[in-house]
Design goal:
Elements (H helix, E strand, L loop, with lengths): L1 E6 L8 H13 L4 E6 L2 E4 L3 H5 L8 E7 L3 H13 L4
Helix pairs in contact: 1-3
Length: 87
Amino acid sequence: MTEDRVIFNCGAADLQMKAVAMLVQKASDFRSTVYIMKNGHRANAKSLLGVMSLGIDNGSEITVTADGTDSGEAVKSLIEYLKDPKV
C-alpha cells in the first residue's frame, strides 16, 4: 500500500468540480484500488459521486492511498495533479 498527502490547490472556485472530475478520470487509468481521504472520510477515487461527497475545497488536506501493482505510480500521479490541477 502506498500513501501520500497533499493540499488541494485549484485556484478558481468554479474549476473545482472540473478538477474533481479529472481526478476521477486519472484514478480510473490505474489498476490499483485508489482511495481519497479528507477529514477521516474515505471515498473510492474512481467514483465521481464518492469523491464529490467528500466536499473537497481549495486548501483541503487530502490523503491519497492505493493498493495494487501500480500503487506507487497511481499515488505519485494523483498527488502531482492535486498540487496544481490543470483543467
